[in-house]
Each structure stands twice: as C-alpha cells, then as structure tokens.
Amino acid sequence: MWSELQRKSDSVMVCLCLRRRHDGKDERRMSEKKIMLGNAAIARGAYEAGVKVSAAYPGTPSTEISENVVKYDEIYAEWSPNEKVAMEVAIGASISGVRAMASMKHVGVNVASDPLYTASYTGVGGGLVLVAADDPGLYSSQNEQDTRCVARAAQVPVLEPSDSQEAKDFMKFAFEVSEKYDTPVILRTTTRLSHSQGTVELLEREERPDKPYERNIRKYVMMPAMAKGRHVHVEKRMEAMAEDGGGFPINRAEYNDTSIGFITSGIPYQYVKEVFPEASVLKLGMVHPLPKKLIEEFASKVEKLYIFEELEPVIEEQVKAWGIQATGKEIFTRQGEYSANMLRSALLGEKMEQQPAAVPARPPILCPGCPHRSVFTILKKLKIHAAGDIGCYTLGAVAPLEVIDTTICMGASISSLHGMEKAKGKDYIKNWVAVIGDSTFMHTGVNSLINTVYNQGSGTVIIVDNSTTGMTGHQDHAATGKTLKGETVPAINIYQFCKAIGIEHVAEVNAFDLPLLEKVIKEETAREEVSVIITKSPCVLLKGNVFPDVCVPIPEKCKKCGACLKPGCPALTRNEDGTIAIDATMCNGCGLCMQLCPFDAIEKERK
Length: 607
Known about the structure:
This protein is of the alpha/beta class. It is built from 19 helices and 25 strands. A 7-stranded mixed β-sheet has the order 5-4-6-7-9-8-14. The protein starts with a strand and ends with a strand.
C-alpha cells in the first residue's frame, strides 16, 4: 500500500522505471537520472509529490531547498519573515486541502515550535511536511541541537534519508504518511546530506486534486475541550505508526555477518557501510516513532549490537529502555559530525596513517568593502559594547574588531539590551548598542523593538541595513522589495516603521560616512530614551553592484602607522619596508582605509 520506487542499476541517463502506486497498481513512465544536491532532491520530491505551497526562512544548511522549489511553477514558494510564519502558512495551506511544506534549519524549528506542537494535535488536511536541517559539527550555527528531540516532545514522526535519492523518495513518502495518519511529518536532514550530491531518478509530477475543505471545529480549533480529545488521537496515531513501522519500506534490515550488527540512520549509515560492508545493518528511515518489533527481531539475530547515530542518543535511549543490550554513546561522541574514520577508530582501533597537511588557519573575516566593518570601526574607537545578533555582523566579535559581546539567537540583540537596561539602569547601557541586520530585524527584531518602546526602555539600536539576507547567500526579505519568485513588491520602510511605533529619534546614515556616523552614535547613545540608527549601505556581493574605484596607497606619504590596518580589511597588507599594500583584485573602493589614514597616504583611483 506504500509507494516504493524500484531503482534500476543501469547507468543510462534515461530509463524506464517501475513505480508501485499506493493503490497496488504498477505504473510505467519515462524517467531521467540527474546528479543533485540533497536540498535540490528534497525540492524535487516536493514537486513530484504534488506540493502546491512552500514557505521558508533562509538558514544554512536548508536554504537551497526553497531556491530549488521556486524553479517549479506549479508550486507557490515564498520567503516568510520567520520560521513561525512559514510553518503557519504551510499549516493553513494544508487545512485548505493541498499538500504543503515549510523548510528551515534546526534553530528555526525552535521559532516554529509553537504552531508545530499544536499542528500535531490538529492533524492535517492535505499532507504537511516540515523539512528541518540539522547542523552536526556547527558549520554555521550557534548550537548543535537535535531536531529528533523536538519531534519526540511534539509527538511528530521523523523521516531521515541517507543520500540524495532517498531525500527525494522520503519526501514523497512523508506526504503519504502525513495523510494516512493525519499528522505533520518532519523530514530531517543534516549539513552533510543537504550539501552532498548524488544521482537522483526524476519522475513526473503527480497532480493531486485538492481535498474539499470541511469545517471541523473539534479538529482545528484547539480550545482546551477540543485539545483533550485530539491528544487522545495523537497517542493512538503514534502507537499505530510504531506498530506499522516495521513494514515501512524505508525501514529495512540488511542481514550479512550476524556477529556484528548496527542500528543507524541518515548519513551515518553511509559510514557504517564503508567501514563494515559485511556487517548486518538495520537502517531506519523513520527514526521516530521507532518500530519496536523490527528492532527486537534484528537485535535477536546479531551477537554484538551497536547504535551509531549523530548527536543525541535518541534511538539508543529507547532501545535500551526496551531492555535490549547495545553499545552506543559509551564509545561514540554526542558532539560534532561523525565520519568513517571515527568509526574505524572507535571499533577497530585504527588511526589515520597519514595526518592531514598542516594548513594555516584562516580566521573568519568580513569581506573587503563590507559596510559592517566601518560601523564596528567607529564603535571600537568609541569603546562601545554591542549586543549582537545572527548574521555576517557576528564577525564583529573576533579580532581585530572585537566589538560584539553577545550573540544568542535571532532578534535577541534588542531584547537582551533591554534586559540589561532594566537590570542596571539607563546609565549602564550608554556605552552599549544593539546591532542587528535588516533581515534579522524583520525576522524577530521587530517584536523586540516594539517591546522596548512599550516598556519604556532606552538604549540605541543600530540596524545595519545591507539590503539582503547576507550570511545565507543573499536572499530577499520584506524590506528589499523582491519576493522569492523575483517579483517586485512594496518594500517595508524600516525608517517609517520605527517612527510608526513611536520612536522619535531615528537616523539614517551611510555606513561609510565615518564623521557623520561617529557624530550620530555619540548623540544617540547619550539619550535617555530608545533611539535607532539605520546604516544603509548595500552588501558588496549583491548582484548588480558596481565598484568603479579602487584604493591605491601612496608609498612616499605612508608613515607606517598602521591606522588603515586596524579594521582588518583583507585587501590591505604591509610591504617588507612597512608601507601599506592594497590588493586591487580584492579592493572594492569603499574608502574606509582612506578615511582612517591621517597622512592622506591613500587615494581613490578609477579601475
């Protein structure tokens, strides 16, 4: 009764594939094979599954999902201001009777958890899938949380693919599970899967008729009386999935040498197969709820059982709670990304024969010409601390700028500064500012600023407006005037918004006008009320930006003082004699170094 793609082993790019429909009928259709990123394969799975609505907020490693979804005209796709809104958009589409999805990184699931937990109770109309991209190894995140833990608390099933083909297939299967069991489903991916490539077999889109909307107050209005009844439904649903899970095609036992067995899922499955190709493996495609009978059967047939899962011992704790003897986190870490070498080291005692070559460390740094650098340069000069936020500007915490003192989560800069003021008084934060980007401000900074105004706070907020969501690859947002589909729409005016919520002192400044920027920061931080400074200078990497000038040193004027080097622009270095050299291939002609030089030893020149 479950759709199961029968893969072919031939290497031709176009082949005839056999697909088992959920109604038991075989369906032949032409397909194409293509190498795809895991994220692109997820988008393809959504397309083939007949998804009609997709909402997301960009966040590495999930961003490319929506950037690929938008290529399919049959799917409405949007960047939402934050993950909570994206989840609610998908829920609304599902209730109306169509298949819908929301995509986000793991910390975005926290933002979306409010509607997610309740959607677990309401169930779905059309299939509803949340794609959550975890980040083992902390490649681009502020924590290393495991979405499976959230799903367990929310009582939502989780599917976890191991390669690009499975990413596409599991996405389609997730919608079948969603509709059969009346539940939202989480498709969990990780950085390694999201950004790895593999061969994917492409099929045609399955157009599905919209389900007629039926008004059902007891199902969709979660007042206490209704919620009590729906909680019973949730418990029965989870029990049914656990019972049925042993027969799901995505859960499979691969019996070989039964002296050693592994229970694993996702990318770690690939490492097990690489290091122990002859071992028996129970590959779990659904990692919550777990198929107890299948696990018990597998455990009974192997002599030594290992549980190999990244991050938290979600599978391990449940298996051991059933009284099954297994080895897991006693020898495998809860921290970071797993690898084949780690598995070899833990079980075979092997060490890498050849150590990787020593590569000079490359500290993270802002791009040449980045407008954030000039803002941090002035803040450092004035010895002002900054409560930071999530974005490229977080790099203001590291040398040589060293201005950002805190970074917690999206939108926390303004709220944490408000908390400091309420704890220590207005004078305490006069040498503090909150620094937040334009995209992050639209995400949750808006709420934080409203709270500060409403609760009569003080303090200065600097919105570093570079006209994009820079850190995740230059996605648009509500204040840029462009949608995910490239349509031109009215842009939210951040200046007017700040004035509209009652902030009297709002200033817009060119980030590279250092004298004016310094003057405005001094004035605004001295106030006894909340104020906002908007530094408006576009990201240097935005498409269409043209930089006609480069900065050129004048060696005979250089006094070797190093004032121009203090902001840490990577285009600037010293010559052997101590004078300044500027790499013309890196310089964007922002003029920051030129303004900082007290001896006029740098000038602009046309490229």
